[in-house]
Design goal:
This protein is mainly beta. It contains 3 helices and 20 strands. The strands form 6 sheets. The protein has a 4-stranded antiparallel sheet with strand order 1-20-19-18, with no helix packed on it. A hairpin with an 8-residue loop joins strand 18 and strand 19.
Length: about 300
């Protein structure tokens, strides 16, 4: 997260710009000039959930309390955190929205692609599903390729197959790349002692030009954040934004020093939603002024909170 400088506790917490109402928001994400939000209701067992977006939030930072969302659709059971897809990869600006969770009635996951370069969005195109055959996937990918070709973008089936994940039960770990199936994917256990792992990011967390893995976990009693890296000399370590999930709070972890070997962080309360469950949070420079904004979801509170490091 970008901020003016690191001099102590007073600089850790950003300015709260406001909040707006939206029920049961689980995930927030920013792609290009759009803020995306997902909603899921565990009590609506067989009902798909809503996904939303806000265009150009960076131009509306002075009126956060009056932000209004646009509904994309209601085609995902428990929509999770989405992935932004560059137009250089598939020819058009797009997002891939995964869904599905262990809640009864919400286990039928999808990988829905939405093309977002014009409104209303083009989609969804479900490119993977755990109970579909290869033939079903082939038909859906062909439909997706047809949509691409209608825009003259040259995204034919061969290019799309490079990204295809075969999703039927018998080939859940098979990946098709350039027409060749990789029957086995090698995995390495990083740490099996931290309990249930939830969020994971791969980033250069300490500015040493090497990627680290940052994982949030819960061991049944305490939530923790773990980082795995090869230490080296660096300066200006960034803050870590943490959603407390079922304790209803969002936090910012700030480094106590710039020493590469010092992994001590202070826990700073960003937002107490005064409700049972939060949702995700994201830090992004929404208005291009060089300072990060933070958008944090309050799932049970039915609120979305917006903060900024821009000097006020």
């Amino acid at each position: 997260m970008q901020r003016a400088r690191i001099v102590g506790q007073n600089d850790v917490l950003p300015t709260k710009l406001g909040q707006f109402a939206l029920g049961e928001v689980g995930f927030v994400h920013v792609c290009e000039d759009k803020l995306y939000l997902s909603n899921f209701n565990p009590l609506a067992l067989l009902q798909a959930d809503y996904i939303y977006y806000i265009s150009s939030p960076g131009s509306q930072l002075s009126s956060v309390n009056s932000w209004e969302v646009e509904k994309i659709d209601q085609n995902n059971y428990w929509p999770n955190d989405l992935t932004c897809t560059s137009s250089s990869i598939i020819g058009r600006e797009a997002i891939i929205w995964p869904s599905g969770f262990l809640v009864p009635g919400k286990t039928h996951g999808k990988l829905n692609v939405y093309f977002t370069d014009k409104e209303p969005f083009d989609g969804p195109y479900n490119i993977a599903s755990e109970d579909e055959s290869e033939e079903d996937l082939e038909r859906k990918l062909t439909k997706w390729a047809g949509a691409m070709e209608r825009y003259g973008l040259g995204m034919n089936m061969e290019k799309i197959k490079m990204m295809k994940v075969a999703g039927n039960t018998n080939s859940a770990n098979k990946v098709t790349i350039n027409g060749k199936k990789l029957e086995k994917i090698k995995t390495v256990v990083i740490d099996d002692s931290i309990g249930e792992s939830w969020g994971i990011e791969v980033t250069d967390i300490n500015n040493d030009q090497n990627l680290e893995i940052v994982i949030s976990s819960y061991d049944g009693s305490v939530g923790s954040v773990y980082a795995y890296e090869i230490p080296s000399d660096f300066r200006g370590k960034p803050y870590i934004l943490v959603a407390g999930d079922d304790n209803g709070k969002h936090y910012i972890l700030s480094p106590t020093s710039n020493d590469a070997d010092d992994w001590s962080y202070e826990n700073n309360l960003l937002q107490d939603t005064s409700a049972a469950t939060t949702g995700s949070a994201i830090a992004k420079d929404l208005d291009g002024d060089g300072y990060s904004e933070i958008v944090a979801a309050g799932y049970s509170a039915g609120q979305v909170y917006v903060f900024s490091y821009t000097p006020q």
